[in-house]
Design brief:
about 270 residues; alpha/beta; Alkaline Phosphatase, subunit A; 7-stranded mixed beta sheet; 13 helices; about 15% strand
Length: about 270
């Protein structure tokens, strides 16, 4: 039986502050229970290049994403995790849900997650596209979570990517020392709890093997904002917890561009 993957991206999350504040009990529990490795992302610490690295397994001078404008990118030639899993085994079903358009919207700047319209027509690939930049991530993250929980419970796709951006939005607006940042983290931790519960139920009731994986793209300076090369801006992490299977036995010395390879290896 192949392991099903649920990769959850939480944009702009400073893990230690999230846990130490008490705002993220689900995240703290997953970190304590599962595999954990700190990551250091390469500057510039913008979402575009870092999510491109995390989701394609390539570095900046390969995927060509230099900032959040995506000018001159090479993403067409570097398939994302979901696409690579499908090309590896064309019985693989995939699902993506995100409110930042460059991740998933084919009409926008990317997308990093390939559209694969032919697979969408045959229900092998499902993509939920929302626009948190226009409507705000408090509302859009909630929609993404509802769709993702439903997808886990009803379909149980083989490889999934779900993205939340409310913490990053709050960090930009209020900094990462103020209450709104931790309120946003708590809200996303609740979404994480719902997803974890849905995966756990499915693994138990259907005798499936799942791997829940959580990461972020960057941190923030204290006053809010990122893009530089400070340790706090470059700090990321990798958490992986098995349901219906053991936790992965990965080397703790990891790089963001290794994540795709690690997750595909769990599908062998």
């Amino acid at each position: 039986m192949k392991t099903k993957i649920l990769l959850i991206g939480i944009d702009g999350l400073i893990l230690d502050r999230a846990i130490d504040s008490g705002s993220a009990p689900t995240l703290a529990s997953l970190k304590a229970e599962g595999f954990y490795a700190p990551l250091l992302v390469d500057p510039p610490t913008w979402s575009g290049p870092i999510w491109s690295t995390i989701l394609t397994g390539t570095v900046n001078n390969q995927h060509g994403v230099k900032d959040n404008r995506f000018h001159g990118h090479n993403l067409l030639f570097f398939p994302d995790l979901l696409s690579q899993a499908y090309y590896q085994d064309q019985t693989t079903t995939t699902f993506a849900a995100a409110g930042w358009p460059p991740l998933v919207d084919p009409r926008g700047l990317g997308p990093i997650i390939h559209e694969r319209s032919e697979q969408q027509l045959t229900y092998m690939h499902r993509v939920i596209v929302r626009d948190g930049e226009t409507y705000g991530y408090k509302a859009i993250d909630a929609e993404i979570n509802t769709a993702a929980v439903f997808a886990v419970e009803k379909f149980g796709h083989d490889v999934n990517f779900v993205y939340f951006c409310g913490a990053d939005e709050a960090g930009h607006l209020h900094g990462v020392l103020e209450e709104p940042y931790f309120t946003a983290i708590a809200r996303i931790d609740g979404y994480l709890a719902r997803l974890e519960a849905a995966v756990t139920r499915r693994a138990e009731q259907r005798d499936e093997q799942w791997l829940i994986v959580v990461t972020t793209d960057h941190g923030h300076v204290d006053e809010g904002g990122h893009g530089g090369d400070s340790d706090q801006e470059r700090a990321s992490f990798l958490i992986a917890v098995g349901r219906g299977r053991p936790n992965p036995d990965w080397d703790i010395d990891q790089r963001p561009e290794n994540i795709v390879k690690l997750l595909l290896s769990e599908r062998q």
